[in-house]
Amino acid sequence: MVRERKIAAKSFVNRSLLSYVNPHGSVAEQFRTIRNNIQYASKGRKIRSLLVTSPNEGEGKSTATVNLAVCTAQRGDRVLMIDANFRNPILHQIFGVQTSPGLSNVLGQQLDVREAIYNTEVESLDILPSGQRFFNTTELLDSQIMADVMEYAVSHYDMVLLDCPPVLGTPDTNALVNKCDGVILLLKSGKTQEGQAKEAKRSLLFAKANILGVILNKKSV
Q1: Which of 67, 79, 160, 199, CA to CA, is 20 to 30 A from 116?
Q2: pLDDT tens, position by position, 71-111
Q3: Global confidence as pTM
Q4: Can the peptide bond before residue 101 be classed as cis, meaning omega within 30 degrees of 0?
Q5: What CA–CA distances, in Å, run from 93 to 84, 129, 131, 161?
């Protein structure tokens, strides 16, 4: 069963989902370019799962992730967004769904993953919200059950996008990088410090992440 929900109030949509509100605008065009460049960067390997992260909070990774998801769905691909940021989840607000049940409930073996996936108003785009808060977040994300969730997701969707916590300050993201085909690191011009960007890259590479590239967010979209 996939739960049907509508997108959130238009005021929030206008701020976060410009690719949906204005598919012919410059923001949507930029994300279509990013979408295509991801496949070019894969060197011929089909990318079915992608993790998006940043060094710190407030750099725009969630907004970038949802716009990338919208542009991918607009191409006709079936897309699943997973909110793997248990510490500061936001995707449920953007898409106007409940935060729970969600991913943490699936990892806690309280329900099947199919019961925690919601439709959105964007055609071909579904969302798996974060679920209720847990304390042992890294252990849950590094578990075999999470690997099973990813296996289910890539077998039922053309693209799976994970919105993850920042790399610096929490081990949660590094617990997931080897479960995805590729990783995108988002940096914000004027906010992300050079040393933080380098440290985030080192941390991801230490966890054996396949870094496909960097998105430079010049301003909030």
Answers
A1: 67
A2: 999 999 999 999 999 988 989 888 888 888 999 999 999 99
A3: 0.88
A4: yes
A5: 14, 9, 12, 17
